[in-house]
Design goal:
Rossmann fold, elongated, seven-stranded parallel β-sheet
C-alpha cells in the first residue's frame, strides 16, 4: 500500500518518534510524509532514509487557505491507498480537506493525548478538539491510539467509538544498558558515586517539574544527600530563569545537572539509577517509561495515561501528587543502591524484559498493517 501521513510537525517528541520508527521499519508499504510545520529533527532523519517528506511551514497562528490546496495537490499526485493523520491539528485539516475536495480515500486519525484539563489548555486547541468530536462521526474510518486511557478520555468528551489501540513499539537494540557509556558519562559529570535520579521532558507545566523539586527538598531534609538530579529536555538549561529560580527556591541547585535537549537519549538513560515521570496530564503511552525500562533503568511514575499498563509493578505508580509515597519509593531505591543491591538489580532485568515481551517494534508495525489492510 501507499500511505500518506499528515502530522503537525516533526520535532523531537513522542508521536513524531513513533511515526519515524514505524515507517523506518515497515518494509511492506510505501510512506509519504506531510509535515504541517517544518522538517525539524525527525524530518531530516526521514529524508536521510530516502523517505519523501513535504513541509508546509504552516504558521501556528493561522491557517493559510493555500496550504489546503497544496496538500490536496500532493494527495492527488501520489494517490495513496490510505491517509493517516497524527494529532488534533492534522485530524482537523484532513477533515476539512475531505469536505472541501470530496476525498474518497479512507482516512485514519491518530490521537495521542490522554486527558485535556480545560484550565491548562488554550482556547484554540480546545476549539479544535470540539470540532474534531463532530468530525469523528463521519470523517475517519478508524481512530488509532497508543493507549486505552486515551480512548476512554476521548469517549468521555464525545468522540465516536471507532478506536483501535496499538501500543508504541521499541527497538531493544537501540535502548540497552551499556556499562561503558555509564562509567564514561558519570565520570565526565562527576557523579560516579552518586545515586542519580533522571527526568526526561521539556520545560512545560504538563511535565510538572515543580512536584519533583518539592519532594527532593523533603528528601534532603530527611538526610538523604548523596544524590544528583539529571534533567534533560527542551529549555532545560541555565538560560531558563524560571527553572533556575524554582531549583534555588527548593534548595537543590547543587544537586541538579541540566542537560538541555539531547538527541541520543539511549546514552543518557545509562547514567540514571531511576527515572521519575511526573506529568500531570496529556500523556497516553509515555515513551520515556518504555525507553528507560529497555535501558534497565527502573521507573517511578505518577498515575497518568497507561503508566500502570507499561510498568512492571503497580507499586511503582504513584497517585497524582502523592509526595509522601513518591519520597518513600525513591528512598527505597536510594537505600538499595548504597546497601543491598538485590532490589534495584532485579528491577533492572524485570523492566527490560517487560518491554521486550510486550512492546516490540514488530508488534506495533503488525498492528498498523492489520488496521490499514481492512
Amino acid at each position: 500500500m501507499k500511505i500518506i501521513h499528515i502530522i503537525t510537525g516533526l520535532n523531537n517528541a513522542g508521536a513524531e518518534g513513533v511515526l519515524t520508527r514505524l515507517i523506518s521499519n515497515d518494509k511492506k508499504n510505501k510512506h509519504i510524509i506531510i509535515s504541517l510545520k517544518g522538517l525539524d529533527f525527525f524530518g531530516n532523519i526521514l529524508l536521510s532514509k530516502k523517505i519523501t517528506v513535504y513541509s508546509m511551514n504552516l504558521n501556528r497562528n493561522y491557517l493559510n487557505i493555500k496550504i489546503l490546496f497544496k496538500i490536496n495537490k500532493i494527495i492527488k499526485k501520489h494517490n495513496p491507498s490510505i491517509i493517516q493523520s497524527w494529532m488534533y491539528h492534522s485530524d482537523l485539516i484532513i477533515s476539512i480537506l475531505k469536505i472541501l475536495f470530496r476525498i474518497k480515500i479512507p482516512i485514519y486519525w491518530n490521537v495521542r493525548n490522554s486527558n485535556i484539563p480545560v484550565k491548562l489548555s488554550n482556547f484554540k486547541i480546545l476549539l479544535i478538539i470540539r470540532i474534531c468530536v463532530i468530525f469523528s462521526y463521519f470523517v475517519p474510518t478508524k481512530i488509532l491510539s497508543c493507549a486505552e486511557s486515551i480512548r476512554k478520555e476521548h469517549l468521555k468528551i464525545g468522540y465516536k467509538d471507532i478506536f483501535t489501540i496499538i501500543p508504541n513499539g521499541f527497538d531493544p537494540n537501540l535502548y540497552d544498558h551499556n556499562e561503558y557509556y555509564r562509567h564514561k558519562l558519570r565520570k565526565y559529570l562527576n557523579i560516579s558515586n552518586k545515586f542519580v535520579i533522571g527526568i526526561i521532558g521539556r520545560w512545560h507545566p504538563q511535565k510538572n517539574h515543580i512536584f519533583l523539586f518539592k519532594l527532593l527538598n523533603q528528601l534532603k531534609k530527611r538526610k538523604f544527600n548523596n544524590w544528583k538530579l539529571v534533567l534533560a529536555g527542551r529549555n532545560i538549561n541555565t538560560k531558563n530563569i524560571s527553572l533556575l529560580n524554582l531549583i534555588k527556591k527548593y534548595q537543590i541547585l547543587d544537586n541538579c545537572i541540566l542537560l538541555d535537549e539531547r538527541k541520543k537519549l539511549n546514552k543518557i538513560y545509562n547514567i540514571f539509577d531511576i527515572t521519575v515521570c511526573t506529568s500531570l496530564y496529556g500523556e497516553g503511552f509515555q515513551n520515556v517509561i518504555a525507553e528507560s525500562m529497555l535501558s534497565k533503568v527502573p521507573v517511578v511514575s505518577l498515575d497518568i495515561g497507561d503508566a500502570r499498563y507499561i510498568l512492571d509493578k503497580v507499586e511503582d505508580v504513584i497517585p497524582i501528587n502523592d509526595e509522601n509515597k513518591m519520597i518513600e519509593l525513591i528512598a527505597k531505591y536510594y537505600n538499595s543502591f548504597f546497601g543491598h543491591k538485590e532490589f534495584i538489580n532485579q528491577k533492572r532485568h524485570l523492566s527490560r524484559n517487560k518491554i521486550i515481551s510486550n512492546f516490540s517494534i514488530e508488534n506495533m508495525i503488525n498492528g498498523y498493517e492489520e488496521v490499514w489492510s481492512k
